[in-house]
């Protein structure tokens, strides 16, 4: 009966009316259902994490802390066997009890041969996951259930970041039986987790509505209802905020000065991130496969000018792909200064005497990205490189970049925890599940393989630092631009809002009016 009532309440054609304390948050439309199994986009994760929980999470100091697990796992001396114990007071929104079988199902779904998780590479060290994914096994051999609240995971090789990866939204635990009964509509009209908020409604053009979980084990949150409203562009979102239709909206650097000097200056919130604004170069392109051309791009781009006029000096120019303070950050990398003349010389050395045409794709509605490529277009033209700028919606952009069909694109990359292995392993090895750069280098592959398997933290750090040097300084397949800070306009009545590495957290928020 409880499940039936939940599903009736999730009817996508039925709009529930706001009751009690309610907030509206403007976010970009991800153009995808609410399921981190299908999408790695931050907008999806921000919404999803309020309803679906992970074994571990990160606090504001980026420490790993237990959430569904009772404690950090016990790890064997060889660093291959992890023993976990679940909390015994966790119930899903359908009334079912969280057990080890639901956690096992997480990995079965991640490595489902038919519909694998888009980010399952973060968990590929689980022993037997490769055979299960290949359809050669009926179960994942590395996962063993001891009882309802205890299980072990065996790794095929040591992975010092494995527990960290279990804090990511991709590792959200859902009730196995409910998913199997409603998998065709999961993330559309049905979404069941164990979090402090329950799914109410999803509309692909309007957004997502959730309401407080009255039975949450750690006590109900103060906000009764959260509506994440989809915004097609930043300017519309700001107008909606000014009109009082949104309580939270993101503020881009190009609008910062206007709002910082006006009536909304006291409503600006700044969040630091473990993030970098970068340009990715796809070596699959017939011209960009030439390292001299890639180096010419680096010289032709005036990154100081970009930091000033695109990011409005609200972010600092950086020479690193991996954020400072993270494993893999190489403090010895120094990129050359802007030089149009040197760019021309490199192109001539590569045999290009005529202008070079390169297509760029960015996400439609992202004003900052459009400004970046418009400025870059003017800079590169002086060196004899013509940029052809195109746009695609968020879902299409993700598909195009992951499949290697975009030759030049920018992204704001964020680490969910201070370990650059995410940037280095899963984007740039030959075996990467992403084809963003298609860079193949046996030396780099060997370094990444040794770093992944090393149980020694110092050795691992040194190997990843060398990997970053190769990617950024030697091969130039990644061009770092700036570090990343995020700004929001937040109505004064909303208190205790958090953004941890860009992801919204309203679990501890409240509304206080004078």
UniProtKB/TrEMBL annotation:
InterPro entries, from UniProt? Peptide/Ni-bd, SBP_5, SBP_5_dom
Q: Name one Pfam family in it.
A: SBP_bac_5
Q: Name one GO molecular function term.
A: peptide transmembrane transporter activity
In this chain the Solute-binding protein family domain maps to: 63-430
- SUPFAM superfamilies recorded: Periplasmic binding protein-like II (SSF53850)
- Which BP terms in the Gene Ontology apply to this protein? peptide transport
Please provide one cellular component term from the Gene Ontology annotations of this protein.
ATP-binding cassette (ABC) transporter complex
Which CDD domains does the entry link to? PBP2_NikA_DppA_OppA_like (cd00995)
Q: What is this protein called?
A: ABC transporter substrate-binding protein
Which species is this record about? Entomospira culicis
